[in-house]
Write a structure and sequence with these properties.
With 310 residues, this protein is an alpha/beta fold. Helix content is 41%, strand content 9%. The protein has 12 helices and 6 strands. Strands 3-2-1-4-5-6 form a 6-stranded mixed sheet, with helices on both faces. The chain is elongated.
């Protein structure tokens, strides 16, 4: 079996398990033509079923199918291995052994799979049949996996339309209910209290917590949003204004030449009007005196020559 087809079969059986409750070991109804073809293609029937269904299987055969093997128009030497293989399977009693002639596979399976005509696979059988009529009948019953052999390859049919409808309906119900599907579980911690042990009381407590028992429905609090302001990172920062106390304490050194009083060698405190916006005076910049260059000497010489000539 190729990997891609094997992966599809595994997902298909998982869908049957989740939707219809199939579990291992799978109960597989095997008819007489399936045993014949498996023997003709030299196929290990049990191993092939386990590989195709991805799990342990419990092959079963009805009393009518065993009687079909006894009445095959083949030599006894070919018939004995088929009967031996059929006897190694579990016998499914169909209560048709009292009849003189066995029923057909379709009639026998219709009484076993769906005896109440409710179109449901109550006992969760997997049908392995080579008869097209039997597979067509089983497609009308919801939740019946079908297996058959074609050219020495065992094939698991896709899910029938009725089974797909049941699966999609369950998925829609789960989508609608959402988390409400967990309402059946008890709430373990109700404000630090342990469960009482009484399932009814625990459900009532959980309902009160969710607001089911309250008359007034729980309303969601609307979030109040204020006016939007500018981005604080893009706004220009405001300059800090100096306090009057800091301005009075500012001290600047003043020399005797700047103050005009030769006897004042100390410092003078300069008071600033707090209402004025002018910055306090700082240190006085020293003016640089340039040395006389060559241009100045030439200009003095020219002026002296002009004086002498006059």
């Amino acid at each position: 079996m190729r990997g891609k087809r094997s992966k599809q079969y595994r997902k298909l059986m998982q869908s049957y398990a989740m939707t219809f409750g199939f579990r291992e070991p799978y109960q597989v109804l095997v008819d007489a033509p399936m045993i014949q073809d498996a023997s003709r293609f030299k196929m290990g029937l049990l191993g092939a079923l386990e590989r195709i269904l991805h799990g342990k299987v419990k092959p079963m055969i009805t009393q009518c199918s065993i009687r079909h093997l006894y009445t095959l128009p083949v030599p006894q030497s070919e018939k004995d291995p088929l009967i031996l293989l059929a006897k190694s399977m579990e016998r499914r009693r169909c209560n048709h052994h009292e009849l003189e002639n066995p029923l057909s596979t379709l009639e026998c399976y219709s009484n076993i799979i769906d005896p109440r005509k409710s179109a449901t696979n109550r006992h969760r059988y997997v049908v392995a049949s080579q008869e097209e009529e039997v597979r067509r009948f089983c497609r009308g019953i919801k939740g019946v996996p079908l297996v058959y052999v074609k050219r020495s390859v065992m094939i698991l049919e896709p899910m029938a339309e009725g089974s797909v409808g049941v699966k999609e309906g369950m998925e829609r119900d789960k989508f609608r209910t959402g988390l409400q599907g967990r309402a059946g579980k008890r709430k373990r911690d109700v404000e630090g209290e342990q469960p009482t042990g009484n399932i009814g009381e625990d459900h009532e407590i959980a309902g009160v917590e969710r607001g089911e028992g309250s008359e007034e429905p729980m309303q969601k609090k609307k979030r109040v949003r204020g006016p939007k302001g500018p981005n604080p990172l893009s706004v220009k920062r405001s300059k800090k204004r100096e306090k009057p106390e800091q301005i009075h304490e500012a001290i600047s050194p003043v020399t005797a030449e700047d103050s005009g009083d030769g006897h004042n060698n100390g410092t003078s405190i300069i008071e600033r009007d707090p209402d004025s916006n002018q910055a306090p005076p700082g240190k006085r910049k020293r003016k640089r005196k340039h040395k006389p260059g060559k241009l100045d000497e030439l200009s003095h010489e020219a002026a002296g020559d002009n004086g002498l000539s006059a």
